[in-house]
């Protein structure tokens, strides 16, 4: 199983940005956590982060025929990006959406997710563990 992990804007600032919401561990620690989680399932993963919407769209398009699944934390683009939604629809690769925080219990602007319209499952509020739960979806 080959899974593409996509992390959106500002997730590279983990450990620095709003630690009371996102925790004190940095992005590299998240990457290592995802790698260990994937290895425990014998999955191959590529982990990608970008702060740019179009770059994320390009990455999703390039996943066609290459990856069996996508795990995406679109970060702020969750709530704004029809372009990312359309790219996920276009490639039609099974996708699981992850959020470190529980977007449903935060500000109203975070309660709507465009990506949820295409995601097979949305996992939020479980911190790093959510990425492992998302990978486990692909064992079902
Ligand atoms: C986030 C939640 C989003 O609302 C926010 O814009 C992020 C991170 C999360 O992982 O909890 O950047 O996707």
């Amino acid at each position: 199983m080959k899974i593409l992990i996509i992390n959106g804007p500002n997730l590279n600032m983990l450990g620095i940005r709003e630690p009371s919401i996102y925790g004190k561990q940095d992005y590299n620690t998240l990457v290592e956590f995802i790698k260990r989680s994937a290895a425990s399932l014998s999955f191959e993963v590529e982990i990608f982060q970008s702060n740019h919407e179009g770059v994320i769209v390009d990455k999703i398009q390039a996943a066609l025929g290459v990856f069996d699944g996508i795990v995406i934390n679109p970060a702020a683009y969750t709530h704004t990006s029809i372009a990312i939604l359309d790219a996920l629809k276009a490639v039609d690769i099974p996708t699981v959406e992850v959020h470190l925080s529980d977007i449903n219990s935060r500000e109203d602007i975070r309660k709507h997710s465009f990506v949820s319209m295409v995601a097979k499952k949305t996992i939020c509020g479980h911190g790093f563990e959510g990425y492992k739960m998302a990978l486990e979806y692909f064992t079902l």
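The chain has one domain: 2-137. Residues 27-40 form the longest helix (14 residues).
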